[in-house]
Amino acid sequence: MVDAVEARGKHMMMRFSTGAALHTHMGMTGSWHLYRPGSPWRKAEGMARVVLEAGGVVAVCFVPSVAEIVATGSEESHPSLSRLGPDVLAPSRDAAPLVTGLRAAPDAEIGVALLDQAAVSGIGNIWKSEGLFLARVHPFDRVADLDDAALTRVVRAAMREMHRSVRLESAGIEGGRGGYRVYRRSGRPCPRCGTVIEMRRQGPLRRSTYWCPRCQPPVTPPRRDPGPAARAGPG
What we know:
By secondary structure, this protein is of the alpha+beta class. It has two domains: about 1-80, N-terminal domain of MutM-like DNA repair proteins (Alpha-Beta Barrel); about 85-210, Helicase, Ruva Protein, domain 3, CATH 1.10.8.50. It has five helices and nine strands; from the N terminus they run βββββββααααββα. It has helices at about 95-105, 110-115, 125-135, 150-170, 230, and strands spanning about 1-10, 10-15, 20-25, 30-35, 50-55, 55-60, 65-70, 200, 205-210. The strands form three sheets. Strands 1-2-3-7 form a four-stranded antiparallel sheet, with no helix packed on it. A three-stranded antiparallel sheet has the order 4-6-5, with no helix packed on it. Strands 8-9 form a two-stranded antiparallel ribbon. The longest helix has 23 residues, at about 150-170. The relative contact order is 0.11.
């Protein structure tokens, strides 16, 4: 019997009355589908990795990157679950733990840090670019060069947009399609200022990052005072 279904960042935990849980992660291509018994599936049967039936509903998980049973009490030592940072979709909507998570990687570019699930769990490539645009933060700025106000704007924007997307998806509406501000819009005008949107590959995984160079100017680190001797010049 299924007791509960929980999201932990990009991971899903389906908890059973036995105490064990089914852990799945969709990766780039996986998906869960819900069907009525006897209804045709939208994907080939050979692509199904998990099939569960309960309460007159058939839940089918197609080609996940992870599908495993996690024993009771083992999550805290699990190689990926134990490393997850604070969840961007946590009910509290508290930005402070997410800012703290990002601060743990001060030398990382903010566009890379947002995808580090050990820093902040749940943000993907779409909401990385969209959140940075809404917060007017340059994706290639280092975390250390951004103040807490800027980081808070970023995580709150991502949080707000992701909660909105979940609400629309729950209502059967695909929230993002056609409504992105910068994601996959390179070469097109910025909806805010009309400047051409740019795209560059970022980080070790070379993920695509989209931004408006006018709305999201890079931070210029403050120049250090050279000291009185240097200001005085040669004697």
